[in-house]
């Protein structure tokens, strides 16, 4: 389409094509405006080559598509035509760097770009920097172009030689009166439909124009958004350009889809003339189905846009005429669309994956089916609530420098019911979040697209959410008969409090209301009130911690100690009120000054003041040191240097974001304190350390330097070697290994001593054949083997792992690996031998492996 053919469209004829002499001024100014806008929009293809055509041909075509939708003789005066024409020219112009005063640098300084880069880096951390930057450019320009369009008609460019200002609208009078309106209409094509009502319905003309040339800005905005949505055809993806530039993925699907489409036209089968139809020039084969579905989704969107605008134009607050076109043939009916956009070798059906019983899905995947039968349901639900509160508090600190943030946990009675209430002074939720991502099962708000518009700059900050999977809230219903959630944005007052009330446990339609400011103090922004199920009420009256170790009983603990252990490593302060008695349950940090108090919390007050556990904790506390990664504390621990094989002491804990994967079944086999780990799945079982191996290794080496080796028994040295092996640190100089050289002849020896002994007496150990994993067996009663020095393992750990590779133990800092190296360090060769099924242990036949230095 060219500038000449614009004049043949109905919208032009009814507006800027007027024979009125006053319209000539507007026509002339529009053509000058168009010439300059063309230069800017021509740059879009080089800035964002993956996009379909957005140049002047697209802009001109909107006059024709808009005329088709509005219909013949649609009321438009020349002033409205000028505003519409200007908005058409600018609506996509800012998708080029040249539309920004600072160009590429300005875009990359923007919060939108930084957030986009952070998001893309998180999704594809291995991509080269240039590719990540390009992806961020695309996302940022798509996000910024609407708001930038709003200022383009007002801003100027400097002519370099004369330092003169150049404007898109040359006439100062027109620019002063209409540049802001034109920018707002251009920007509005990316607004939600309700926001269009923010635009003025009537703007009166300046004195130089006829008084009846009033401009309906809402009407103009609706024309732009419908015409822009509906312009999809091969002019947007011309043949040679489609062939010239190789594309892939979503970009290819959009190009292929539009390349096949003919110009949109009236549907001749509709005698009312209220329908439009899209047709294609060729069929879509099965391997092109994704491109066909792009057309279907777009056609459905176009009809939705047209219907929404017509509804808006016919509302009681708007007095302008509706558009003639009311529907698009084939929208929401794939088979109907395939008559006009045909397929070959396949038939389009609405076969999207769907969930027929979403309530059952949430119950299964948000409850015991996910976390496992027998899991401590109160621990899981409480942990998930704390996680959400913590994320909200840390997010608020980025926007409110005066916010300290805290969580208040309250257990209270009300009409013979027990309620658990958790309040936080976090960032709170807007209605969009509260009724959107918050209730969207499987979608974490912190990873949703909404976070960029609600909290610009959050993604590119150092904020890192604990929540990842978007299902934590629904775990609450494992313990709840009734739930009330109240919230407000942190920067709004109590009158903005909203509440969702789940009256009978999990419901897909909770009751929503607003203005419930009496529910909690103005200090807090979000409150979750849980009416506890009877079985949970029974549990909290006498909490029990599982031990799950042979010969050990489960442990009864106080409720305060139970709740304290769950939040002991969290990075926000927490207060706890048990039926009115308020205590500070956690300070929000762990340091050398309070590490003994931390150990007291995670061990349920040193397991009810057990003397041996208290002594071990006291010794380890002096050596506890922070583990720092990327300027963040991701652990605080001391390596275990005390031999113990007497059951659980609960002095260590694995956390995910400062919250434990479990408070049950814990001991300090390898360390005392805590380490933060990643989650293996939505179940939030601890997997890998957050800190990389080199950081953990350095921490372990520093721990060795803090130890007084003279105070360690031989058994302690064996235990320390097991811990070092676990943390991938060589224990060869530290370990003492217990051996038997005959009846009642047992002693500890270093690896160097063992290597020397093996020159005369072969060393040996047993490996069970019961499992496929090679591991030195300690579950047998054999205490000596004639003719051999028998290694007697003391603790079941990866220090006992054993795997021969090319007839040598795998180099993994295990006992066998260290022994192999010790023999080599004496200048001898370790010769390994296997004796099949040499004896029988508790789990059946055992192989006997020996090594001799030669």
Helix content: 25-40%
Helix/sheet category: alpha+beta
The total strand number stands at 31
Outline: elongated
Query: What gyration radius follows from the Cα positions, in whole Å?
Result: 36 Å
Percentage beta strand: 15-25%
Helical stretch count? 29
* Average residue pLDDT: 88
In the sheet with the most strands, the strands line up as 12-11-10-13-9-8-16-17
Q: Report how far apart the termini are.
A: 90 Å
**Largest sheet geometry:** 8 strands, mixed
Low-confidence stretches: none
Could you characterize the architecture of this molecule?
With 854 residues, this protein is of the alpha+beta class. Helices cover 37% and strands 18% of the residues. It contains 29 helices and 31 strands. The strands form eight sheets. The protein has an eight-stranded mixed beta sheet. α3 packs parallel to α6 (78-90) and α6 crosses α10. The chain is elongated and about 120 Å long. The mean pLDDT is 88.
């Amino acid at each position: 389409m060219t500038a000449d053919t614009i004049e043949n469209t109905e919208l032009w004829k009814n507006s800027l094509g007027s024979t009125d002499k006053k319209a000539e001024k507007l026509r002339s100014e529009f053509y000058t405006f168009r010439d300059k806008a063309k230069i800017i929009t021509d740059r879009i293809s080089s800035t964002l080559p993956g996009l379909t055509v957005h140049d002047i041909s697209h802009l001109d075509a909107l006059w024709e598509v808009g005329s088709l939708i509005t219909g013949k003789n649609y009321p438009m005066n020349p002033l409205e035509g000028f505003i519409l024409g200007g908005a058409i020219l600018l609506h996509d112009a800012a998708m080029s760097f040249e539309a920004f005063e600072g160009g590429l640098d300005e875009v990359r300084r923007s919060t939108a770009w930084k957030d986009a880069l952070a998001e893309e880096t998180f999704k594809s951390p291995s991509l080269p920097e240039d590719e990540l930057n390009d992806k961020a450019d695309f996302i940022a320009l798509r996000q910024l172009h609407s708001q930038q369009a709003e200022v383009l008609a007002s801003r100027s460019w400097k002519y370099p030689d004369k330092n003169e200002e150049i404007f898109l609208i040359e006439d100062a009078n027109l620019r002063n009166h209409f540049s802001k309106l034109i920018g707002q209409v251009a920007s509005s094509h990316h607004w939600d439909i309700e926001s269009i009502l923010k635009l003025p319905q009537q703007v009166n003309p300046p004195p130089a124009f006829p008084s009846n040339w009033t401009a309906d800005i809402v009407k103009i905005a609706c024309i732009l958004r419908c015409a822009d949505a509906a312009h999809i055809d091969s002019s947007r993806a011309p043949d040679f350009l489609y062939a010239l530039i190789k594309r892939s993925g979503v970009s290819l699907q959009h190009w292929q889809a539009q390349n096949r489409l003919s110009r949109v036209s009236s549907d001749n089968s509709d005698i009312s003339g209220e329908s439009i139809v899209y047709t294609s020039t060729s069929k879509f084969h099965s391997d092109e189905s994704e491109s066909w579905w792009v057309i279907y989704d777009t056609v459905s969107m176009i009809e939705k846009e047209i219907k929404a605008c017509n509804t808006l134009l016919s509302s009681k607050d708007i007095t302008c005429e509706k558009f003639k076109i009311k529907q698009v043939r084939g929208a929401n009916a794939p088979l109907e669309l395939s008559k006009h956009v045909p397929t070959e070798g396949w038939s389009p059906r609405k076969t999207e994956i769907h969930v027929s019983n979403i309530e059952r899905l949430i119950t299964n995947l948000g409850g015991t089916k996910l976390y496992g039968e027998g899991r401590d349901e109160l621990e899981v639900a409480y942990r998930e609530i704390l996680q959400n509160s913590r994320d909200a508090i840390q997010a608020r600190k980025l926007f409110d420098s005066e916010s300290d943030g805290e969580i208040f946990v309250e257990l209270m009675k009300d009409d013979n019911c027990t309620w658990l209430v958790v309040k936080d002074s976090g960032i709170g939720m807007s209605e969009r979040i509260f009724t959107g991502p918050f209730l969207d099962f499987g979608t974490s708000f912190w990873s949703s697209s909404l976070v960029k518009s609600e909290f610009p700059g959050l993604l590119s900050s150092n904020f890192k959410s604990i929540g990842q999977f978007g299902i934590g809230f629904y775990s609450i219903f494992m313990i709840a008969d009734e739930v009330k959630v109240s919230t407000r944005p942190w920067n709004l007052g109590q009158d903005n409090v909203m509440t969702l009330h789940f009256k009978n446990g999990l419901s897909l339609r909770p009751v929503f209301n607003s203005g419930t400011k009496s529910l909690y103090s103005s200090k807090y922004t979000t409150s979750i009130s849980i009416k506890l199920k009877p079985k949970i009420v029974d549990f909290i009256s006498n909490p029990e911690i599982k031990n799950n170790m042979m010969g050990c009983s489960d442990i009864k603990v106080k409720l305060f100690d139970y709740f304290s252990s769950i939040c002991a490593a969290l990075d926000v302060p927490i207060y706890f009120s048990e039926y009115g008695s308020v205590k500070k349950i956690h300070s929000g940090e762990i340091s050398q000054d309070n590490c003994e108090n931390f150990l007291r919390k995670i061990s349920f007050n040193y397991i009810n003041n057990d003397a041996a556990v208290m002594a071990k904790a006291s010794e380890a506390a002096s050596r506890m040191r922070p583990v720092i990664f990327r300027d963040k504390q991701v652990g605080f621990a001391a390596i275990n240097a005390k031999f113990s094989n007497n059951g659980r002491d609960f002095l260590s804990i694995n956390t995910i974001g400062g919250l434990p994967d479990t408070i049950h079944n814990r001991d300090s086999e390898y360390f005392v304190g805590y380490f933060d780990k990643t989650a293996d799945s939505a179940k939030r079982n601890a997997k890998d350390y957050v800190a990389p191996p080199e950081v953990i290794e350095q921490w372990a080496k520093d721990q060795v330097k803090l130890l007084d080796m003279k105070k360690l028994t031989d058994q302690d040295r064996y235990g320390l070697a097991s811990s070092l092996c676990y943390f991938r640190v060589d224990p060869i100089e530290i370990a003492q290994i217990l051996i038997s050289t005959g009846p009642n002849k047992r002693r500890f020896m270093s690896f160097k001593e063992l290597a020397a002994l093996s020159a005369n007496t072969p060393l040996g150990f047993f490996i069970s054949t019961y499992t496929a994993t090679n591991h030195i067996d300690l579950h047998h009663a054999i205490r000596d083997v004639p003719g051999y020095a028998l290694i007697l393992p003391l603790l079941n750990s990866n220090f006992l792992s054993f795997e021969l590779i090319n007839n040598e133990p795998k180099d993994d800092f295990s006992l066998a690996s260290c022994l192999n190296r010790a023999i080599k360090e004496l200048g001898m060769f370790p010769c390994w031998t296997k004796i099949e099924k040499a004896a029988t242990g508790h789990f059946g036949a055992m192989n006997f492996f020996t090594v001799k230095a030669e």
